[in-house]
Every structure is written in structure tokens, then in C-alpha cells.
Specification:
The complex is a heterodimer of chains A (115) and B (113).
Chain A lengths: L4 E3 L2 E4 L5 E6 L6 E8 L3 E9 L2 E4 L8 E7 L2 E6 L8 E8 L9 E2 L3 E5 L1
Parallel strand pairs in A: 2-11
Antiparallel strand pairs in A: 1-3, 3-8, 4-5, 4-9, 5-6, 7-8, 9-10, 9-11
Chain B lengths: L3 E2 L4 E5 L4 E3 L2 E2 L7 E6 L5 E7 L5 E3 L5 E5 L4 E6 L8 E8 L6 E3 L3 E6 L1
Parallel strand pairs in B: 2-12
Antiparallel strand pairs in B: 1-4, 3-9, 5-6, 5-10, 7-8, 8-9, 10-11, 10-12
Classes of the chains: A mainly beta (115), B mainly beta (113).
Chain lengths: 115, 113
């Protein structure tokens, strides 16, 4: 298996622009997580899905952030409009059925820079 | 509130010396605990986990961790550090609701030649 695949790996955009980050979880995994990592705040859970359904989005910073999982093999995290403080590395992770508190498999991350 | 805490932002150790990266937990009952490692510009990678059983857990790259219930700790250890072990290490455990994994703040390990 190729592991969790994220795209783009790097994104540089200007304030106010829409940003869409993409994630393909490992086949057969039914839980998907979006994390944000910054120097100041460390690793933060933004939202997680179970069987394509959002279970907990309490970590989503504000209404500018939205996440979708239209099917078991694809998820997006969208920021609209983007702001410089959104600059961070965004990670997607997935886990096997019944293992949302078990081992997580992380993608390589999407490094976002908002100018 | 986080269920795990890493009291050290950074640990420095000389190559060949033993290393310890500390983690304490506050989950009641029998916790399940994890260690993950993050190399520069990479995602987190699973190192090892404790569920039940032997308090000494062995993991990848020669790392091990000891679950200590009386001290509510799960410190990561390695008998002889390598320069290539330099990375960011995260301890993880269940959140208070027990429905997802929560991570500590991370400890940067610097192994100097």
C-alpha cells in the first residue's frame, strides 16, 4: 500500500485566496483525521471522520475552515478565505476500523504558506 | 485537557549514550499509550504502543518504553543513541472521552556526535 497520500506537498498563496488540501487514506481504513502543526501550538486535531461522517469538528478554528469526505477514499480540507495565521503543516491520518484510538498512519503533510 | 504530557521541550544527548524522553499520563483505568517519531519534513511514524501485558514495550529502531503505573509514566528509552535518532518525538494516549487519540506537545531529541 502507498500509505496516506496528501496533496499538494507545498502551497504558497496570498491572503484571501481559497486553499484546498487533499487526502487519500489507506484503503480499508475507515477513520480519517486532519491535524495542523505549528511551532507555537504543536499538533492540533482539527476534525475526524468515521465512515465518511464527521464525528468531531471542535478543533476547526473558525468558519473559514471546512472539511469533507465524499467517499471512503478521499477527503478535502478547505480554507476560504485564507489568512497568514493559517500558515502551517497540515497532516492527514487514517486508522483501521475500530482503531480511532489506536495506531494512526500519517501522510507526509501539506505545508501551507499564506503571504 | 490532554491525557498525556511531555515535560521536556528538548533533550540533548551524546551519541552512544543512553537516552530517555519523558511522558506522563493522566488517563484513569488502564491506558493505552503510544510513541510516534517525526523526522524533518515528514509525517509522524508509529514507534511502539502499550495496551496491556508486559510493562516494557519494544518498538522500532531499537527504542523501548516502560509503562509505570505508580508513576503514571511511559518514558521512551534507547540504550545507545545514534545521530540519526535526532527527531521530534510525540507521546499519545486517549482523550478524556476515550474516543480519539491525543498527542503531547512533542520533545525534540538532539543527538550530537
Amino acid at each position: 500500500d502507498a500509505g496516506v497520500i496528501q496533496s499538494p506537498r507545498h502551497e504558497v498563496t496570498e491572503m484571501g485566496q481559497e486553499v484546498t488540501l487533499r487526502c487519500k487514506p489507506i484503503s480499508g481504513h475507515n477513520s480519517l483525521f486532519w491535524y495542523r502543526q505549528t511551532m507555537m501550538r504543536g499538533l492540533e486535531l482539527l476534525i475526524y471522520f468515521n465512515n465518511n461522517v464527521p464525528i468531531d469538528d471542535s478543533g476547526m478554528p473558525e468558519d473559514r475552515f471546512s472539511a469533507k469526505m465524499p467517499n471512503a477514499s478521499f477527503s478535502t480540507l478547505k480554507i476560504q478565505p485564507s489568512e497568514p495565521r493559517d500558515s502551517a503543516v497540515y497532516f492527514c491520518a487514517s486508522s483501521e476500523p475500530g482503531q480511532n484510538t489506536g495506531e494512526l498512519f500519517f501522510g507526509e503533510g501539506s505545508r501551507l504558506t499564506v503571504l | 485537557a490532554q491525557s498525556v504530557a511531555q515535560p521536556e521541550d528538548q533533550v540533548n544527548v551524546a551519541e552512544g549514550n543512553p537516552l530517555t524522553v519523558k511522558c506522563t499520563y493522566s488517563v484513569s483505568g488502564n491506558p493505552y499509550l503510544f510513541w510516534y517519531v517525526q523526522y524533518p519534513n515528514r509525517g509522524l511514524q508509529f514507534l511502539l504502543k502499550y495496551i496491556t501485558g508486559d510493562n516494557l514495550v519494544k518498538g522500532s529502531y531499537g527504542f523501548e518504553a516502560e509503562f509505570n503505573k505508580s508513576q503514571t509514566s511511559f518514558h521512551l528509552k534507547k540504550p545507545s543513541a545514534l545521530v540519526s535518532d535526532s527527531a521530534l518525538y510525540f507521546c499519545a494516549g486517549p482523550n478524556n472521552a476515550g474516543n480519539m487519540l491525543t498527542f503531547g506537545g512533542g520533545t525534540r531529541l538532539m543527538v550530537k556526535p
